[in-house]
């Protein structure tokens, strides 16, 4: 594989990681499977739930957005499968996964992006 092909592939992978998961268009048998937390993992992160910060909602006319800040010290207790190894940021989490971490929001929200400078920030959006 040439260097240009490798660069193109790398850029495509980054773009795919940054795009929200559109589960409706994925065939059922190829849906990503959530990585559920074990009871022991849930018990370790439970004390941090009261420290979550939920931003106010904001919108751009198409989507409604909000972000959730998790305590930085909690990140060490979350399974490595929840992170992108190269960046140390969260991968795009499925609803069962972010709810399993203790994030509580009404229905319709999707984790669509992470904020590399602050790996403890998860960005969410939903149709307006």
Tally of strands: 5
Tell the overall outline: globular
- Proportion of residues in β-strands: 15-25%
Number of helices: 3
Radius of gyration over all CA atoms, rounded = 16 Å
> Helix and strand succession?
HHEEEHEE
End-to-end Cα distance: 43 Å
Question: Major sheet: size, sense and barrel closure?
Answer: 5 strands, antiparallel
Structural class: alpha+beta
Low-confidence stretches: 18-28
- Fraction of residues in helix: 10-25%
Give the rounded overall mean pLDDT: 84
Protein name: Cyclin-dependent kinases regulatory subunit
InterPro entries: Cyclin-dep_kinase_reg-sub (IPR000789), Cyclin-dep_kinase_reg-sub_sf (IPR036858)
Function: Binds to the catalytic subunit of the cyclin dependent kinases and is essential for their biological function.
Family: Belongs to the CKS family.
What's the topology here?
Layout (H helix, E strand, L loop, with lengths): L2 H16 L20 H7 L7 E2 L3 E2 L3 E7 L25 H6 L9 E5 L6 E7 L1
Antiparallel strand pairs: 1-3, 2-3, 3-5, 4-5
